[in-house]
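Re: that backbone. Tokens:
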């Protein structure tokens, strides 16, 4: 399928658009894998703090279990036309050990504070190593907007 009418964005514009979406959007698909149980994918709420993506999940979830075994993850914003894929390293923080600024920003964005819940939760911080962004076939070339943790110009 060829989509017409797409104006190819320059790298700086793709970077700006990607950062705006990371700051504004609510949901992200989180893909993890476990050496024995295989791949796992789940949609979660997320917070972008300007340097990393934060998600929160049950401490006993497959996502938390997988990240503890294999910290490499992939995140995808849920728009198949305006694609943003983030690959990075994840780290788990028990709900009582998460940095206060991250937990408070998460609670403010979603009006939900996992630290106040009865069950145990973990916050997962994903520091991007690479980011790809594209809108349709005309933008496939040049879709890498971050490489080795550095935003490209």
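Recovered sequence:
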């Amino acid at each position: 399928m060829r989509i017409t009418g797409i104006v190819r964005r320059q790298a700086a514009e793709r970077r700006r658009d990607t950062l705006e979406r990371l700051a504004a959007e609510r949901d992200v698909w989180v893909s993890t894998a476990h050496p024995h149980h295989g791949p796992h994918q789940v949609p979660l709420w997320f917070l972008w703090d300007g340097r990393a993506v934060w998600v929160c999940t049950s401490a006993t979830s497959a996502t938390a279990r997988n990240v503890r075994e294999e910290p490499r993850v992939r995140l995808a914003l849920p728009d198949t036309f305006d694609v943003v894929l983030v690959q990075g390293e994840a780290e788990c923080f028990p709900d009582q050990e998460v940095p206060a600024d991250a937990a408070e920003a998460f609670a403010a964005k979603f009006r939900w504070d996992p630290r106040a819940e009865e069950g145990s939760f973990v916050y997962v911080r994903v520091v991007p190593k690479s980011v790809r962004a594209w809108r349709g076939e005309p933008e496939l070339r040049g879709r890498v907007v971050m490489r080795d943790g550095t935003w490209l110009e």
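Strands lie at 27-34, 38-48, 53-58, 72-76, 82-94, 121-135, 144-147, 150-151. The longest helix spans residues 11-24.
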